[in-house]
Structures are given as C-alpha cells and as structure tokens.
Amino acid sequence: MSQPATQPSTNARRANQRLQELGQRFTYRVAVLLRTAQIHSPENRAMDFSLRTAAQAANALFDMVGEVNLIGEEHIVHLNEQRLHLDKSASAPVADTMRALRDWQLGGIQLTATTDVETWRRFIIVLQQQPVIEAGGTPDPDAHHRVNLALGERSGVRVLPIMRLGGAGIGGAGGGAGQSLLVQASRALSLYVRAIELMIRLHGQDADKLGGAFPAGLTKVLQALVDQVFTEPRFVLALVAWKQGGPYLPRHVVNTLLLGLALGRRLGLNRSALMDLAQATVCADLGMVLVPEAVREKPGPLTAQERALIDRHPLDSARLTLTAGRLSLTARRRLRLAFEHHRKADQSGAPKTLGPLDQHLLTRIFAVCETFDALTTTTPWRAGLLPDEALAKLQEDAGRGLDPALVGQLQRLLGRWPLGATVLLSTGELAVVYLSPTDERAPDRPVVRVVAGPNGETSGVGALIDLTDRDARGGYQRSVRRAVDPAAFGVEVQRALFG
C-alpha cells in the first residue's frame, strides 16, 4: 500500500533534480555566451559554438517546463521561483552574468518559445546596444521594455525588469535595498536555518559550558540578521510565520529574536542596541535547557515540582550568563533580560523580587515578541492561534503583563494580517500574506500570493496580488475575509513565501 503514496514524491524529486540540471546548464551556457561576446563580435564565426550551445540548453529547459523566468543577483539565482544550486565551476561566470544584466538595467531572462542560433545572436546584439548604468545611478524602469521591443514580438528570448522592494511596488524598479524579492527571501531563509542550527548546537552543550562563549559563527549570524533588519525586515518577519517542525526551544528563541529585532528597529534602536537584544535573547532561555525535556514538552498540566523547575529557569539563565566572564555593558544587559524576562509589567510573574522592579526596554520588547511567537506555535501542550487571534490576545493582556505601547507597535509592524498568514479572499481564493502593507493607513491590505482558486484548484507558487489594487469603478478588486488554518487547506506556507 505504500507504493502509491511514495511514487508521486519520488517522481517529484526526479523532476526537480532534472530541472536543477537543465537550469544549471542553461544558466552556465548563457554566462559563457556573454563572456565570449566580450571578445568577439556577434557576427564572428567564433561565436557560433556558444550561440548553438546556448540555444540547445534553452530549448531543453523550455521543452521541460514551458515558460522560463531566470532572475537573481550574483551567486543567488532563481529559475521559476526555485533557487538554482550552482556548483563551483558555474558560480563565478553566472555571478558575472547577473552583474552584467544589472549593469544593463535588467533583472533576468525569460524564455517564451524555442530558440535558434539567430535568436541568441540578435539577443547579444540588442544587449550590447543597451546603455550601461553608472555606479550609484538609478535604474530606468523602462529599460526592459526597450530591449524587448528591439528583440521583436516573435523572439523566444525576452528580458525581465529589475525586481526591487520599495515604493514602486512588486516587481518594478524602485527604492529599498535594490535586491530582488527572491534574493532577499533566500538570504533571510539561509540565515534563519543557520541560526536554528547554531541554537541547537548551543543547547546541546554540557551544562557547564552553556554560559561560555557562543558557538563559532553564532555572533556572525546574529550580526547578519541585524543587517537584514536594517536592509529589508519584511522577509525576517515572514520567517516567524514558517512554523516548520523540529525542536521547539531553538525555534522559539530564533523566532523571538527575529521579531524583537524588527520591533526594535521600528522603535529606532541602533545596530549596537539590536545586537545587545539579539545576544540577550539567546541567553534568556539558557536555563530552560537544564529543565528535563519530559517536563519542557509535557502535554498535560505540570505538577507543583515541575512548575517550580520552569519558574526557576530565569535564575538559571542569569547564573549561566554570569559565567561568561567580564561583566561588560552588553553582558549586564544579557544578565538583566535573562533574570526578568518572565516578570510582568504589573510586577507579577517569576522570579519574585523583594520590591518593584522596572523592566528594561529590551526586556519589554522580548516579552511582547516571545508571547506572540508562543501563542502562534502549536506545541504538545497548546494549539497555536492564528496570527490575528494572537494579536487580539496580546491586546487583551496589554497593561497587565505586557507593555501596551509595545503591543501597539507590534500590531502596526505586522499589520492586520501578519506576513505568512493564510487568508481567504473575497473572491474565494486562498492566499498567503507575502508583504506587509506599505501604507499603514490600510493595515488590512497587504500583498498576498494566491495559492488556490475559488473552486479549490491549487496554483502552486501563484501570482502576487496587491490588495490595494482597484477596479474600473474605484472599488477594491479583492479583500481579506478572514484568516484560516493553512494545515486545514494543505497550504505550504514555506513554498508560498520562499519558493
């Protein structure tokens, strides 16, 4: 009985492997073609081999998948929204290709039909006539239109615009970091996975080593996450919505860290303060590692003794933080957050103190973000809430256990429908929130990726739709009806967000 269930998965893996092979070959052949064109004129017979092999690679890929969209930046390249894994021999020439396209103010290459040698010869001629952008210059959003017009409607090779994050919208040239959506997503996802791996390694150390130096590479990853928040925080927030499997504690720490960085950035904290927050977040739950896993993961009510172990973990976290060595300002901030992160704004919580204790700002940021992630994560002891439900719950607790001002800031940061939320649209379509609203005055109108039609037909990695788009009468084309559980509809949030 197992064969029918595994056969589609096996076929899918084979198809994906074949797509990777053909995609790498095509990308490499285009890179070689562009490099050869730097030496020889397009009409030179020395170009014929490169032109022919580029056409062959393009046609093999087109025959398999139909229309091809190749975009990227230097060493990160996506084919039809799936990242290509380039080997070392292809990495350098492909990076040169993506840089050359950027210099020509273009974002990628599109295949719409089979091609021949003359198609690619014409492609090279047109590209070489394209003006090159000066360093620091602003790309022309119409550059790809001019190139495609010169190529002609019948050309099977087209070019794509530079895809940027910023005020110009989706897929268009604009401000922001100047990186394509997919490149930004890949970088954020890579950092996220690496951070979880390092947290698992940290939590797996012997108790006497927990308070020592961070695992090799963790500080560098934390710094990269801080940089990501300054560059483009939206994909950092989307990662928190990806509730993949694995040990709860490492994921919870990393998710809390990401939310905290984004919220801290919104509040105007500088890089140094955000780095302090990141390192303090890592230390805050070190004491939980000393609690037996059977207690941490217990699905039922805790006994009084088990509850005492849980309530003690802030003290253990503080003790472990103290063993790290010299008490610098950063170390003192780690120590304070570790000690007070489960105390409440109304002075309740653990551990108990002899008198009132005003929480540090970093602790208050941590508390709001830690609570949101805990509420939205399904664990053995609690079913996770939908993101909008969790935000409503935070609002209920504001003023008692949480700082109401920070709860409000988190709500404005995430929007009415947080990134990664699965939503039902007014058209009956299912979608995943892909980008937060650019206009805070319309918090219920994010950018979404449609993943299923009104009749339930799946669209895989579907189109990006801006819910601020209006029809001819001035009304909104689509609106969000409500959030839904992605598992109930078989929605792959990771695929919708990261391809």
Total helices: the number is 18
Give me the strand/helix succession.
Answer: HHEEEHEHHEHHHHHHHHHHHEEEEEHH
Largest sheet: 5 strands, antiparallel
Average pLDDT, all residues: 79
Number of domains as seen in the coordinates: 3
Quantity of strands, as a count: 10
Describe the model.
This protein has 499 residues and is α+β, with helices and mostly antiparallel strands. It has 3 domains: 15-160, no CATH class; 181-414, Orthogonal Bundle (Hypothetical protein af1432), CATH 1.10.3210; 422-498, no CATH class. The chain is 50% helix and 9% strand. The chain has 18 helices and 10 strands. The chain has helices spanning 2-37, 48-65, 88-103, 117-128, 143-151, 181-203, 218-231, 234-240, 248-266, 271-284, 293-296, 304-322, 329-340, 361-376, 387-397, 404-414, 486-489, 493-498; strands at 68-73, 76-79, 82-83, 108-111, 157-160, 422-425, 430-435, 447-452, 464-466, 480-484. The strands form 2 sheets. A 5-stranded antiparallel sheet has the order 3-2-1-4-5, sandwiched between helices. Strand 6 and strand 7 (430-435) form a beta hairpin. Helix 2 (48-65) crosses helix 4 and helix 6 (181-203) crosses helix 9. The radius of gyration is 26 Å and the shape is elongated. It starts with a helix and ends with a helix. The model is unreliable at 1-8 and 164-179 (pLDDT under 50).
